C-alpha cells in the first residue's frame, strides 16, 4: 500500500474531520441503535435525503424495543420512498433477535454485529469503531475511491480482493482511541473532498501530501470501475382507478422486486387508452370516464420501468382491490415511489 502513509496520516485526517465534519443528527451521540439505523438508511441513499427520514424514524421508534415491536406495515410506511425495502425488513428481524436473545442490548463485537440480519462487513465495521472504539475499518465506495487515489491503484474498484486488502491495511492505521473519528474521517473525505463527481479537490485535501495519485497526476482518472451492464427496460401500464370511496391498490407478490409492498393495479405492457378501458372492464370496475394519462420512467439498479398511467373514474369497486382513501394513502399504506408518483 501507500509508502507515504504513516501514523501522521491518521492524526492529520482525524484533526481535519473534527474541524470540518457535517452536522448530522446521527452524529450527536454514539448510541449503536442510532448509528445502525443511519448506516442502513445511507446505503444507496444520499445524506440529504436520509436526514428527514432518520428524524421521523427516531421519533416514531426511539428504541430497539420499539423497532422490534412495530408492525411491518408501519415500518414500510416509515421507509416509503427510501427504496430497497429488504433493508427495513432485515432491521426488524435483527431488532427482534436482539430483544429475544441479547436482552435488548446491541452486541459490541464485530463478529456478533455482523451476524445480525442485513449487516455486512461495512456496517459492522462502522458500528464497532464508532460506538465501541474498535479498530475495524468500514470500507464503502467513498473509502475505496479515496484509497484508490492515495495508492494510485488502477485495480477495478469492484474487485473483491481490493476491498479485502484495503480493509486489512486501514485496520493497521487505527489509533488507540477515537477510532470512530478515523472511520468517519475517511468517509467524510470521500464525500466532501475526494468525491465521485468531477475532479477531486486535491488543492484543499488535508492529506494531499500522502497521495500517490496527486504526485503522479493521475487522481482524476481514478478509481477504475468496470462498466455496468445496461439496465433492462420494461414497459408498464399503471391504472389510477378512482371511485367515490377511494383509489384502487393491491399487494405485490411476496417475491421479486418490491416484494409484498402495495402497488397501483398494473400490467407489464404498454396499452392504448382503448385497451386500458378494456382491461378495467375485465377487472369488473365499470369505467365511467378516462380523466387523463401521463408517462413516467422509474429507474431501479438493474431495471427501468417505462410507465404510462391512466387516471380512470370508475363506478364499481370489486373486492380484488383495496379502495384506499387519501388519508389512508398518506398515513397508512406504504406505496413505493414508482407508484406514488401518480398520486402526487
UniProtKB/TrEMBL annotation:
Catalytic function, reaction form: Hydrolyzes free adenine bases from 7,8-dihydro-8-oxoguanine:adenine mismatched double-stranded DNA, leaving an apurinic site
GO biological process, one term: base-excision repair
GO MF annotation, one: 4 iron, 4 sulfur cluster binding
Domain of life per record: Bacteria
Gene3D superfamilies: Helix-hairpin-Helix base-excision DNA repair enzymes (C-terminal), Hypothetical protein, domain 2, Nucleoside Triphosphate Pyrophosphohydrolase
Keywords carried by this UniProt record: 4Fe-4S, DNA damage, DNA repair, Glycosidase, Hydrolase, Iron, Iron-sulfur, Metal-binding
Positions of the HhH-GPD domain: 41-192
Cofactor: [4Fe-4S] cluster
The enzyme's E.C. designation: 3.2.2.31
Keyword Protein transport attached: no
Top enzyme category: hydrolase
Cofactor remark: Binds 1 [4Fe-4S] cluster.
Family statement: Belongs to the Nth/MutY family.
Record function comment: Adenine glycosylase active on G-A mispairs. MutY also corrects error-prone DNA synthesis past GO lesions which are due to the oxidatively damaged form of guanine: 7,8-dihydro-8-oxoguanine (8-oxo-dGTP).
PANTHER family: ADENINE DNA GLYCOSYLASE
Protein name per the record: Adenine DNA glycosylase
Organism: Anaerotruncus colihominis
Amino acid at each position: 500500500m501507500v509508502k507515504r502513509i504513516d501514523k501522521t496520516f491518521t492524526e492529520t485526517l482525524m484533526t481535519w474531520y473534527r474541524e470540518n465534519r457535517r452536522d448530522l443528527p446521527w452524529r450527536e451521540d454514539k448510541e449503536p441503535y442510532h448509528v445502525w439505523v443511519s448506516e442502513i438508511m445511507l446505503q444507496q441513499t444520499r445524506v440529504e435525503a436520509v436526514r428527514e427520514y432518520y428524524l421521523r424514524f427516531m421519533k416514531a421508534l426511539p428504541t430497539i424495543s420499539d423497532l422490534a415491536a412495530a408492525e411491518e406495515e408501519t415500518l414500510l410506511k416509515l421507509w416509503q420512498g427510501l427504496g430497497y425495502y429488504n433493508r427495513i425488513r432485515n432491521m426488524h428481524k435483527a431488532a427482534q433477535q436482539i430483544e429475544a436473545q441479547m436482552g435488548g442490548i446491541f452486541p459490541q463485537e464485530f463478529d456478533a454485529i455482523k451476524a445480525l440480519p442485513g449487516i455486512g462487513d461495512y456496517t459492522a465495521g462502522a458500528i464497532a469503531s464508532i460506538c465501541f472504539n474498535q479498530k475495524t475499518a468500514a470500507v464503502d465506495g467513498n473509502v475505496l475511491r479515496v484509497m484508490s487515489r492515495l495508492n494510485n491503484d488502477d485495480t477495478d474498484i469492484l474487485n473483491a480482493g481490493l476491498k479485502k486488502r484495503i480493509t486489512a491495511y486501514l485496520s493497521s492505521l487505527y489509533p488507540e482511541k477515537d477510532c470512530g473519528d478515523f472511520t468517519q474521517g475517511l468517509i467524510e473525505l470521500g464525500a466532501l473532498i475526494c468525491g465521485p463527481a468531477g475532479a477531486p479537490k486535491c488543492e484543499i485535501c488535508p492529506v494531499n501530501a500522502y497521495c500517490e495519485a496527486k504526485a503522479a497526476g493521475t487522481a482524476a482518472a481514478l478509481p477504475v470501475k468496470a462498466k455496468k451492464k445496461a439496465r433492462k427496460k420494461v414497459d408498464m401500464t399503471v391504472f389510477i382507478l378512482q371511485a367515490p370511496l377511494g383509489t384502487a391498490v393491491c399487494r405485490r407478490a411476496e417475491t421479486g422486486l418490491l416484494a409484498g409492498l402495495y402497488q397501483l393495479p398494473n400490467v407489464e405492457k404498454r396499452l392504448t387508452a382503448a385497451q386500458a378501458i378494456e382491461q378495467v372492464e375485465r377487472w369488473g370496475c365499470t369505467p365511467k370516464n378516462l380523466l387523463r394519462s401521463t408517462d413516467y420512467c422509474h429507474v431501479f439498479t438493474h431495471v427501468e420501468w417505462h410507465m404510462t398511467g391512466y387516471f380512470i373514474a370508475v363506478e364499481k369497486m370489486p373486492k380484488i382491490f383495496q379502495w384506499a382513501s387519501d388519508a389512508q394513502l398518506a398515513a397508512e399504506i406504504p406505496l413505493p415511489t414508482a407508484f406514488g408518483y401518480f398520486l402526487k
